[in-house]
Write a structure and sequence with these properties.
heterodimer, A: alpha+beta, Butyryl-CoA Dehydrogenase, subunit A, domain 3, 3 domains, four-stranded mixed β-sheet, B: alpha/beta, Rossmann fold, three-stranded parallel β-sheet, 21% strand, globular
């Protein structure tokens, strides 16, 4: 068992870290404050393959292994979680389902534009009445003469405000409800497709999360990913890789908060000593370091299993559950160590605190992760 | 950067084995200059570095960005070399690996010791002309035309190839390697690893043994703080502050405060 990262993984980390610190570092605070999506940085990310992380090279992607992918998201999120979110969602649940389930024609049609970042991808499962219960989707796609006519409203769509291609979950066979869910690829210029107002959220404020409206949207039947009724299978598969991304994101946020806490505790003087010299603060830092390390090992193990081509759903759920829990705990402690200053917008630690919380909610809540893990455990052990 | 790295107090050298395998900033500019030359005039780029085994990472990075191949010079006998033996070792490697080179590009100095000596010494070792601190260069047939800032004057120089140029961090903006190229570079990197014996170098002529320079002491400079109480009228105090600290304030804010301040005086 080798715990040392290989040369490639080190180089990926170094390269992404340099990009994130140089390009995103100076604006991360401001784009959060202004809820602004930084197109100027997106332009710089496009030629560097950030939009084709796991897309095969023949379609213009980087074809990274899962570990490199996780490292990329971790390092982006360490500096700016909202852009880490844009990239992970675009790649894991926007582009990857097409890599995995698309026909050769669909791959040729959609992947090059996704991989180049010309189109930003979105994954639209959640509705007003369908969250953890994915089977309760009410959006419909009715077959009509070689086309599907889609009607419904999707909410809390990450990248919603900027997406060029949306993967829509809709019920194709209304008799069987959830079991009849299918995935349709809808381009933003399609008549009847519109973007709602941007959500005013607690964290990840630079990501344009929005509702999407579908009113009699007609797409050719070739736009269906997989077969009618494959929706749940595709969705669950996409969420497995999606969870790796969110776990990596949570880990990046936790790492940033931890580094800020260490730095501050060494600088901040109280009772004529740096607060890092007090045992209580040291205990906090020790717990944070241990938990982050454990989270990182759990995540990289899930990645390694995936890279080895083995089923990794349970391990991905464990990594997502633990990394996001640790992110919330670590950002909370980091803010505590900063005292009153931590509560001020002057320091980044309050942004980390706000950004961390959602990692326990989206891409399957912590409660759903436990369900997935329990299912895995119960099916393996007698 | 140096202050973040551990020193070996016995030899007075930097514990480079503990440093993250990072490319020296000015070398990244030299590499970018090489990419720009290759794009305009063609050619092969061979990157060479000397250091502990982990320095190989830098060569992977260079290959990922577009270099054709890399050569790592690593040997326990090479460790702790001063600039004199470093340039001697590098010269032998260049003669062995790419004897028909046209242009050697180096970062103007390293971010650790900042002596800026290796480039010029390497030109001497190879017996070719060399120009240091170059900001712009273009090639015309077998002539390189360069511009550099020297004592606040722009100098334009010409040199025949083969030659050596050291590049400043102002010369260009080094590119980020794309993740796709990075992935490919690690699939089939062309990196050779050479030790002292491969270059026909005797251990006593290189590394810490062969170095004429010995570092006697290494210490970090420390800033001192002191509280100063000034008394008198506001005008007197302001004048006193500018008299005592005007230069430093000007330096910190990069404006000639003194002139500015005096100009405004009635």
């Amino acid at each position: 068992m080798d715990f040392n990262p290989c040369m490639k993984h080190k180089a990926v980390r170094k390269s992404v870290r340099k990009f994130a610190e140089t390009e995103l570092g100076p604006i991360a605070h401001d784009i959060d404050r202004d809820s602004r999506f930084p197109w100027e940085i997106i332009e710089k990310m496009r030629p560097l393959n950030y939009f084709g992380l796991q897309v095969p090279k023949e379609y213009g992607g980087a074809e990274l292994d899962c570990t490199s992918y996780a490292i990329t998201i971790e390092e982006l999120s360490r500096v700016c979680a909202a852009i880490g979110l844009c990239i992970t969602v675009h790649n894991s649940v926007g582009a990857y389902p097409i890599v995995r389930f698309g026909t050769p024609e669909q791959k040729k049609r959609f992947l090059p534009r996704l991989a180049s970042g010309e189109q930003i991808g979105a994954f639209c499962l959640t509705e007003a009445n369908a969250g953890s219960d994915a089977g309760a989707v009410e959006t419909t796609a009715i077959y009509d003469n070689g086309q599907y006519v889609i009607n419904g409203t999707k909410v809390f769509v990450t990248n919603g405000g900027v997406c060029g291609l949306a993967l829509i979950f809709a019920v194709t066979n209304t008799d069987t409800q959830g079991a009849g869910a299918s995935v349709l690829m809808v381009e933003k210029d399609t008549p009847g497709f519109s973007v709602g107002e941007l959500e005013d959220l607690c964290g990840m404020r630079a990501n344009p999360v929005s509702s999407l409206f579908l009113e009699d949207v007609r797409v050719p039947e070739d736009n269906m990913l997989g077969r009618p009724g494959d929706g749940l299978k595709i969705g669950l598969n996409a969420l497995d890789t999606g969870r790796i991304g969110i776990a990596a994101q949570a880990l990046g946020i936790a790492q940033a908060a931890f580094e800020a806490a260490v730095k501050y505790s060494k600088e901040r003087q109280q009772f004529k000593k740096p607060i890092a010299s007090f045992q209580t603060i040291q205990n906090y830092l020790a717990d944070m370091a241990t938990e982050i390390d454990a989270a990182r090992l759990l995540l990289y193990r899930a990645c390694a299993i995936n890279d080895a081509g083995q089923p990794f759903g349970t391990e991905a759920a464990m990594a997502k559950l633990y990394c996001s829990t640790v992110a919330s705990r670590v950002t909370n402690l980091a803010l505590q160590i900063h005292g009153g200053y931590g509560y001020s917008k002057e320091y980044d630690v309050e942004r980390y605190f706000r950004d961390a919380k959602i990692t326990e909610i989206y891409e399957g809540t912590s409660e759903v992760q436990r369900l997935v893990i329990a299912r895995g455990v119960l099916s393996q052990l007698t | 950067m140096v202050s973040e790295l551990p020193w070996d107090s016995k030899t007075g050298t930097l514990r480079r084995d503990l440093a993250e395998g990072m490319m020296n900033p000015a070398c990244a500019n030299a590499l970018e200059a090489a990419f720009q030359i290759k794009r305009r005039y063609g050619g092969d780029i061979i990157t060479i570095t000397m250091g502990p085994p982990m320095a190989e990472e830098v060569l992977y990075e260079a290959t990922a960005m577009g270099a054709d191949r890399g050569v790592l010079l690593t040997d326990p006998y090479m460790a702790g070399g001063d600039t004199f033996v470093t340039s001697h070792t590098l010269a032998r490697a260049i003669e062995k690996e790419c004897p028909d080179f046209d242009l050697v590009l180096c970062g103007c100095h390293t971010s650790d010791s900042e002596t800026a000596q290796v480039g010029p010494q390497l030109a001497e070792e190879l017996d070719i002309p060399g120009v240091a601190y170059v900001e712009q260069l273009e090639i015309n047939n077998r002539t390189v035309r360069m511009q550099r800032l020297s004592d606040n004057f722009f100098e334009t120089l010409e040199m025949d190839l083969p030659g050596l140029v050291t590049v400043t961090t102002q010369a260009n903006a080094p590119r980020y390697p794309s993740l796709s190229v990075l992935e490919t570079a690690f699939g089939k990197p062309d990196i050779s690893i050479l030790g002292a014996a491969d270059l026909g170098l005797e251990p006593e002529t290189i590394g810490v043994q062969g170095s004429p320079t010995k570092i006697l002491d290494v210490y970090s400079s420390t800033a001192k703080k002191k509280n100063l109480i000034m008394k008198g009228t506001a005008k007197k105090i302001v004048d006193e502050v500018f008299e005592k600290f005007g230069d430093r304030i000007s330096g910190a804010i990069k404006k000639d405060l003194k002139t500015h301040y005096h100009e405004k005086k009635p």
